[in-house]
Design a protein that fits this description.
By secondary structure, the protein is α+β, with helices and mostly antiparallel strands. Helices cover 32% and strands 31% of the residues. It has five helices and seven strands; from the N terminus they run βααβββαβαββα. The chain has a seven-stranded mixed beta sheet. Strand 2 and strand 3 (59-68) form a beta hairpin. Helix 1 crosses helix 2 (35-48).
Amino acid sequence: MIRIATEADADACHAIYARVVETSAITFETELPGVEAMRGRIRTRLATHPWLVWEDQGEVIAYAYAGRFRERAAYDWIAETSIYVHEKARRRGIARRLYGALLEAMKRQGINQAVGVITLPGEGSVAMHEAMGFAPVGVWPKAGYKLGQWWDVGVWSLFISEPAVPPVPVVPFEELVARGDLTY
């Protein structure tokens, strides 16, 4: 089941994220944030952008969210996306379905472009993004240092709707939810 995250999901999201932070360069976060920090991230993000979870038999096994790409107002119609799937839930199509729901929520908000930032080589992430229709748009060489080495970062982009001229203001996620415009 896909649903909108709540602050009560902080423990589960933290557990999924912990292994990624501690053992990989998938994220460049080097210090594991606490559960309360995760709770704050969920609360803050949901005001403006979607944070969705995949729940299986009462257990959150994946989550995906979007957030501001850059702070300048002219960037309001582009959002960076992230997705994390528990190790035991990989290779079941969960990531693609959850990502699809995230992109649909973003589209309903009026966001027209999604950006995925991938630590390279990241074969699984690259394959998933490209299967979703994302295209590579650039590489930042040696962008981050973690686990004793420098990592390149690739950027993938997907237009989820055609940009309007002039653009319609993006609807904050909490407002979209309050209007009942989502069917989770």
